[in-house]
Specification:
There is one protein chain. The protein is of the alpha/beta class and about 700 residues long. Helix content is about 40%, strand content about 15%. A 7-stranded mixed beta sheet has the order 3-2-1-4-8-6-9, with helices on both faces. It has a 6-stranded parallel beta sheet with strand order 13-12-11-14-15-16, with helices on both faces. The protein has 4 domains: about 220 residues, Spore Coat Polysaccharide Biosynthesis Protein SpsA, Chain A (Alpha-Beta Complex); about 100 residues, no CATH class; about 140 residues, Rossmann fold (3-Layer(aba) Sandwich); about 180 residues, Rossmann fold (3-Layer(aba) Sandwich), CATH 3.40.50.2000.
Length: about 700
């Protein structure tokens, strides 16, 4: 592997010398070192002209342009098949390049980054949060965790990539000049954008946690004024590079609610209060700067006349989505907040009353059913209140343990966010729990969960509420393992209670009332058992296969006498209209709740759908079929059927990379990850399932 190391420099001669000496000591020697010299006024030029050492040094006179342009300039003259970037104020560990290249070979990665650690001892100021390290030019702790390379990204200060990939995806410049001041940093962020572009394109990239580089940052980098300038610049740079208009509402909500989260965290985070408050403050600063940049941008992707009104409405909605009520309640409970959180119940001291929040994605709720059963078995005398929503509510009422009282919050329609927040607060007051277990909190303002002395158990992230603001308030956090199936991760939430767990397949049954309604529907449609169920939603939803491909599947089976029933939301019917033109096809869009869906699938012969709730219900009922996967990973989110219990299995058809985060998918077309998956693949699989006849094709995409 022939590697060229590229270094950008300007007026840092002493640090540049240390950087080059560290490359001289590499256990895997680079083929050459390209230094892009951007108009230094110190003795950098003289030092480079007189360099004597084992490195093959190539000096390029930079144009003084932006970071992105300077990087592209260095790449253009490099000879290596692989390019590594190292900043001029960094020293590479002796095994840095060896570990990066080995990781790239072993994993088939086309780009790999490593952590940046401080080269000198730094004193953290009061209230400093390690999560702010990125603004100081260092790696936050998350770079060593399971979200490395996804939420926590490597920087071009320590990065290796294949030459061919940057020919296809060059670093994008937005103008400006090369430099280190906070104003110039607004031309930065090119590395974060570049990394996300590669992941969106499905290119294999990763992080080698052992490939260390040591960054020379001064104590002033931890000064809160400096960090604020860098954080503001990052928000502006994010807008300049991507113009993410769909992030505006989230940004407004974050700005409005940050004081509430910071206040609560200040008094109730087990010694981490000031740290959490600083992190919440920093995120709101970044979001506010992004909003300001978008409002001042004449080329923003919304009409100029409507832009200020749109942002005003977004801020107002955020305020009345619970922010105002939460702030008022937080003030009332300030004295209580100053007291220590009550002890968490356990098997030796079980709770009298407990609240479980499971709101309100159907598939997640199906996967949580085994956990609810094991929780009830561990605490047989506890009174449980299960807070959910109208989507999963009917399924949970039929399948939650008898000790659970299922409470549904208002539907997510219209302006009901504030009403749901009030309902949540009222339920918590009425339940008076000894503990709160938050599995998922999608679509709910989480402030009421933290306005008291009740201990809260949840994951540290990926639980539905905004991690940057509310995650640090969880009193008993559980680290979510993304290498596990989500059902196994849900079981991990019982560990703080000392409850032993066993991973089991969810099994669902329908209520008698739901069975009677399905019998009536099938009778009127004159459809016998053994029909094919297709879960069809209209285009634009991230999880779903295009309707035209469902039509090809429906055409194949309906023309052969197999009845086809379409399911989905009421709005999804619009995407199924062309399928309904076929004989033998019937739509139940918007007519079934989750409890009735169980009864329908109990009568079905096979199922085809996306990686959402109906697929998990099909697996839990025992219906064979296929599941189309796009962005999400079947290893983590796939149907749980492989338990050796003789139950039917749902086969997975792949259409995407399988590990993208929500922010990486934002703004992409709904069928972006699945458009290359052929309908013929699903037809072949379903034919084998329904008839037992295997169809062999050379071009299957799985």
């Amino acid at each position: 592997m022939n590697v060229s190391v590229v270094i950008l420099t300007a007026n840092r001669r002493p640090l540049l010398e240390l950087c080059l000496r560290s490359l001289e000591s590499q256990s895997f020697a680079p083929g050459e070192v390209v230094v892009v010299e951007n108009g230094s006024t110190d003795d950098t030029g003289e030092f480079l002209s007189r360099y004597v050492g084992p490195l093959e040094l190539k000096v390029v006179t930079g144009t003084g342009a932006s970071y992105a342009e300077s990087r592209n300039q260095g790449i253009a003259v490099a000879k290596g098949d692989w390019i590594a970037f190292l900043d001029d104020d960094c020293e590479a560990d002796a095994s840095w390049l060896e570990r990066l290249t080995a990781a790239a070979k072993a994993n088939g990665w086309e780009a790999v980054g490593g952590p940046l650690l401080p080269a000198n001892e730094l004193e953290a100021p009061p209230g400093y949060s390690p999560d702010l390290a990125w603004a100081a030019g260092l790696s936050p702790p998350g770079i060593f965790g399971p979200l490395a390379g996804r939420r926590f990204l490597p920087a071009t200060a320590s990065l290796l990539f294949k030459r061919s990939i940057v020919d296809e995806f060059p670093f994008q410049s937005v103008g400006g000049s090369f430099g280190g001041a906070s104003g110039d940093y607004e031309t930065g962020r090119e590395d974060a954008q570049w990394w996300r572009t590669l992941r969106r394109a499905g290119r294999p990239v990763g992080v080698e946690r052992r490939a260390l580089a040591w960054h020379h940052v001064g104590q002033d980098r931890l000064d809160m004024d400096y960090l604020k300038r860098r954080i503001e610049a990052d928000g502006r740079a994010h807008w300049r590079r991507e113009r993410p208009i769909d992030e505006v509402f989230d940004a407004a909500s974050d700005v409005v609610n940050a004081p509430v989260a910071a206040f609560r965290g200040l008094f109730n985070s087990e010694g981490r209060g000031r740290e959490h408050a600083r992190a919440a403050w920093a995120w709101s600063v970044r979001q506010r700067a992004m909003l300001a940049a978008s409002a001042d941008d004449p080329d923003a992707p919304v009409p100029t006349a409507a832009r200020s009104k749109a942002y005003t409405r977004a801020a107002a909605r955020a305020l009345f989505s619970g922010g105002k009520a939460a702030a008022r309640t937080a003030t009332v409970h300030a004295a209580d907040a100053l007291r220590q959180v009550a002890p968490l119940p356990n098997r030796d001291a079980p709770p009298e009353r407990m609240v479980v929040v499971l709101h309100d994605f159907l598939g997640d709720s199906v996967l949580a059913v085994p956990m609810l059963g094991q929780l009830a078995a561990a605490f047989p005398r506890t009174e449980f209140t299960l807070i959910t929503g109208p989507v999963a509510g009917p399924m949970l009422r039929a399948n939650a343990p008898k000790s659970f009282e299922v409470e549904e919050l208002s539907p997510a329609k219209g302006r009901t966010q504030f009403r749901r927040t009030v309902e949540l607060q009222q339920l918590l007051r009425r339940a008076a729990p000894d503990a709160i277990l938050v599995v998922y909190c999608h679509g709910l303002h989480p402030a009421p969960l933290f306005l008291g002395r009740t201990p809260v158990v949840s994951w540290t992230h990926d639980n539905g509420f905004r991690q940057q603001l509310w995650g640090g308030l969880v009193t008993h956090p559980v680290v979510k393992n993304h290498d596990k199936h989500e059902a196994a991760a849900i079981l991990d939430l019982l560990s703080p209670f000392g409850i032993p767990t066993k991973l089991t397949r969810p099994k669902l049954v329908s209520a008698e009332k739901a069975k009677a309604r399905i019998d009536s529907i099938l009778s009127r449609a004159k459809v016998a058992d053994g029909f094919l169920v297709l879960h069809v939603e209209r285009d634009g939803r991230e999880k779903f296969w295009p309707a035209k491909k469902f039509r090809q599947v429906a055409t194949h089976f309906a023309s052969r006498g197999r009845p086809v029933l379409l399911i989905g939301s009421r709005s999804g019917r619009a995407g199924a209209e062309e399928i309904l033109e076929l004989d033998g096809v019937h739509s139940l869009h918007g007519l079934l709740d989750s409890g009735e869906l169980i009864a329908l699938l109990e009568r079905a012969g096979a199922f085809l759908g996306s990686d959402s709730g109906p697929a998990h219900i099909a697996a839990a009922v025992g219906v064979p079929g296929c599941v189309v996967f796009g962005y999400d990973s079947p290893k983590r989110w796939g149907p749980m059927t492989d338990f050796g219990d003789g139950g039917p299995s749902l086969r997975v058809l792949r259409g995407g990379p399988g590990d993208w985060l929500e922010e990486e998918r934002r703004g992409l077309a709904g069928d972006f990850a699945t458009r290359n998956l052929a309908a013929a693949d699903a037809i072949d699989e379903l034919t084998e399932i329904l008839t037992g006849i295997s169809v062999s094709r050379d071009d299957k995409t799985r």
